[in-house]
Design brief:
Blueprint lengths: L18 H16 L8 H6 L4 H12 L2 H6 L2 E14 L3 E12 L2 E8 L6 E6 L4 E3 L9 H8 L2 H4 L16 H4 L2 E10 L2 E9 L8 E6 L6 E10 L15 E15 L2 E14 L4 E15 L12
Antiparallel strand pairs: 1-2, 1-12, 2-3, 3-4, 4-5, 6-7, 7-8, 8-9, 9-10, 10-11, 11-12
């Protein structure tokens, strides 16, 4: 394990970074990750018939598994190894562990790393309230800060996709989200079905987009983004309140059948932020080694203390 002394916190480095640098890195990372995903998609055929939202949803659920198999999985524990690479805003390459635990709409996702300054990430939804964990000395990482202020991915069960039983497309009738099918759109180097997602109420400022493989209708990516507009500056202090952009991106690969359900075993999570003076890009990869269903889980497990 290689470790350097710049953990991913909300503090910026103060080092100038142009936006094209971050954009280039994001595009490159999408391409590298996409190399492991089958890309032989007949996009033209997929566009011959534009799906309705109802058709996409029905085919997506079947891509997960039959109705009986989906109903049987009341809880899920997925565990494996994690890796963090800080690509901008510091330097680190850390290896650790990860676990995603869910029961109905309740969810908790943690990654642990054995370093003093950066111990990992912790996020949860207990059925009524979302929360994120703190780093040592009460600090928050950039990812924790994002999800603490923009809680929709946790409250709606979007985080970690179909790896969680809280996945909202399994319970559309209950949540009544506003789903906007936008057709085939480019994501990285792939052509995917894009769906805009908004909560029935209390969605906050985050813009949410879900992506589905045209050939299989598996959910393969999500993106959550929001921005803070520039404040009113003066001639003397035009950089006082620059525009800031934040995003969290999830990507899923290596789908395998477990208990009649087709679930991803590779999960990539990215957090990025940028403004006029600094940029950051943190890149986690989780490789799932074990998935178990219907274990008895204590409700306290979903509360971050």
């Amino acid at each position: 394990m290689k470790t350097q002394e710049h953990p991913p916190t909300t503090a910026t480095t103060g080092r100038p970074a142009a936006r094209f640098q971050l954009t280039a890195l994001l595009i490159l990372s999408f391409v590298l990750f996409g190399a492991s995903i089958p890309t032989a998609i007949d996009t033209a055929r997929a566009q011959e018939k534009k799906l309705t939202m109802e058709e996409l949803l029905a085919r997506h659920l079947e891509a997960i598994g039959g109705a009986e198999s989906r109903a049987r999985a009341s809880s899920r524990v997925a565990s494996g190894k994690s890796n963090l690479i800080i690509r901008l805003g510091g330097a680190a390459n850390l290896d650790g562990t990860a676990m995603i635990v869910s029961s109905g709409p309740k969810f908790r996702f943690g990654m642990q790393f054995s370093t003093q300054d950066y111990t990992g990430e912790d996020m949860a939804f207990d059925g009524s309230r979302s929360a994120t964990g703190l780093l040592p000395q009460g600090r928050r990482s950039g990812l924790s800060t994002f999800l603490n202020s923009q809680s929709l991915p946790l409250r709606e069960g979007l985080m970690s996709g179909v790896l969680s039983t809280a996945w909202p497309l399994l319970r559309v009738g209950q949540l009544q989200p506003k789903l906007d099918y936008r057709g085939i759109k480019k994501f990285g180097d792939r052509q995917l079905h894009e769906v805009g997602y908004r909560a029935a109420k209390g969605g906050g400022e985050v813009k949410t987009q879900l992506y589905f493989d045209p050939a299989t209708l598996r959910h393969v990516a999500s993106k959550y983004a929001f921005e803070i507009g520039a404040g009113i500056g003066t001639r003397e202090s035009s950089n006082e309140n620059p525009e800031s952009y934040f995003s969290v991106t999830e990507m899923f690969d290596d789908f395998r059948v477990v208990d009649g359900l087709t679930l991803p075993h590779k999960y990539r999570l990215q957090y990025s932020s940028e403004n006029r003076s600094s940029s950051s890009l943190y890149d986690w990869t989780v490789v799932i080694s074990e998935i178990a269903h219907n274990r008895s889980l204590d409700n306290q497990l979903f509360i971050i203390k």
